[in-house]
């Protein structure tokens, strides 16, 4: 499996865990050893593992949490770090997201997630080959 495919696999697992509200699977997508950070839309940066994991646990436990889809993921591998950018469809609202991963042994693990609103509606959603041309995960 290429680094690009492996990094995309981790991001896909993260979004699938979000959709199924499976906190244990979501936590597994994140590094257990590296420092973590997360910036949820409109929120202050979370910069400790405890803050990041507590935020995800609260989001997944909230019955009001909207559905989400990752659209057009693009993977850039830089040695032992990968950056995956995408658009997120959150109940019809389009956000822009960045996911940063690090290589831990043979797998890629997330260390940062950030999503925020766009000032425009994108006319084109880039399609990634790894998603089979559909341009979305989920």
From TrEMBL:
Pfam families recorded: SnoaL_3
Highest taxon, organism lineage: Bacteria
UniProt-listed SUPFAM superfamilies: NTF2-like (SSF54427)
Domain SnoaL-like: start-end pairs: 11-115
Cross-referenced Gene3D superfamilies: 3.10.450.50
InterPro entries, A to Z: NTF2-like_dom_sf, SnoaL-like
Protein name: SnoaL-like domain-containing protein
């Amino acid at each position: 499996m290429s680094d690009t495919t492996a990094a995309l696999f981790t991001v896909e697992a993260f979004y699938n865990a979000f959709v199924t509200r499976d906190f244990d699977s979501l936590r597994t997508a994140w590094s257990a050893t590296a420092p973590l950070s997360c910036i949820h839309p409109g929120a202050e940066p979370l910069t400790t593992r405890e803050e990041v994991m507590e935020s995800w646990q609260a989001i997944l436990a909230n019955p009001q949490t909207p559905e989400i889809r990752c659209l057009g993921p693009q993977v850039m591998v830089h040695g032992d770090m990968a950056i995956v950018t995408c658009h997120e469809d959150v109940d019809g609202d389009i956000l822009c997201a960045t996911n940063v991963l690090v290589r831990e042994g043979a797998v890629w693990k997330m260390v940062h997630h950030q999503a925020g609103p766009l000032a425009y509606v994108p006319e084109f959603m880039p399609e990634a080959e790894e998603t089979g041309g559909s341009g979305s995960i989920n």
